[in-house]
Write a structure and sequence with these properties.
ten-stranded mixed beta sheet; eight-stranded antiparallel beta sheet; mainly beta
Length: 499
Amino acid sequence: MRFLVYSISLLPWLAHSKTAGDLCRGTAHKADDGNWYCSEVQKITYHNISQSGMYNRTTGVDAKTGLCAHEPIRYNGRGSLTPLLGEVSMHLRGPMSVSKIAVYDHPGDMFGPQHVDATAQTDGGIIKEPSIEHNEVNRALNLGGDIPTTATQSMNGNIIKRLKYGFQTLTRRVPKPDQGSTLVDSTHFQQPMTSSAHPEPIPPKPSSSIFTRKPVYPHPPRIAQPKATDPPASPDHASRTTEKVSKRAAGWDRVAYYTSTAPAEATGIVFLANLGDDRVSGTFDYAFGNSLGYVGPEGKKVVSNPMPFDGYLKTSEYEIAGFTDKGCGDNECEGRPKSTQYHGWDGEAKAFFIEFQMDHLDNDGDDQGMIADAPAWWFLNAAIPRTLQYGNDRHNIPCSCWSTGCGEFDAFEVLGKGEERAKSTIHRQGNLQGGDSNYFKRPVGRMLKFGVVFWKFDITAAVLDDDFDFSESMGQDAIDRIVAYDAESNQHSLFKIGD
């Protein structure tokens, strides 16, 4: 979800997946809002997100000049620097009622909070991307030619007003693995590098208004598959200690749990929002706007301490973020100074489950530029919201790593006002990715249990049985049933990212 994405949303028949293609062949339909839809499904699996690549990590900002600095990070497709395999934050946008949330990890996960990608490296020169409009007001922007793009919108009503006046965000210096950090002027970027292409640098262009674009989908979506030319991952990443192997049989541990049943309780999860205020929590300044801060039960006001929200996000004007309850120590996390910062959920193996309801409700305000009646549940590289979820620096260059492909997964997102269908999309690898045009049914007037499982370099988003239990531990067999793929099923769409 985040700001406008460079993600190319493609009809699955052009991917390698027979089932995804079958589900779209003859059913593809372009809605009035410009988005494409195919068949209703119960599961969507994005297969093999393990590719090598590069993105810009934020290393600092200058609040006086309004400029952000970055360094290029290369990764080999394994390890916590690889998009979505490292720390992720969880995000929710109304209108939505949430009953439960549970997060699980696998004791035998090859990665952990202290894992460092052995092949990750930095070098001179920063990736430079064409200027991006950092909003999610629209889910599409035509980049020219036959290639449509998709984007998502979710802005808190408070910060969206500040963005209108050009407020953006701040980040702090993060040392390189082998040396102290160096501030680099953000005008010295290069174009994003992907695993399949190395284009020539493109100078940045000013963004037009982020509140006036309309969806543009002149053709059915298509996807560009990454070439199988990535360097092999280090064999060290596949190693397991004897202890981890023995723990594998124990299944998955619940590391975070939230229930809205009065009184609402949250264990292992902290709720934040882009509402930072120096007098309460987080920070605000006129160069970069609101940082993350603790958010109150209604998801509308900044508070001074962690509080479980009451389970109700009234409209699409409000969104909140969930992080682990592990705070960031000095120089531990990439992010904005004085912001309220927590670690995200790390590792290649992790699972998220939610029970929610998404009834129709229009926005309270009269800002016609904001998306309305379009709830969503999605995940970001945790460095993105800690740095700047929405907005650019003074040179209109994105402050966070998002635009260069550090990772986002939209699990269940309604794209158009009042739409009854929710889609999924993956953004990483320079954001030249896409989303399956098969969709999930929006739960209106009823609760729905839904899950996202990161396992064996696949991401599976799935509708769960009504009796699914958010228990303290979960056996591997339960996870296996969720991710199991039946090539003959017309309810499970397989969308291949890699071979």
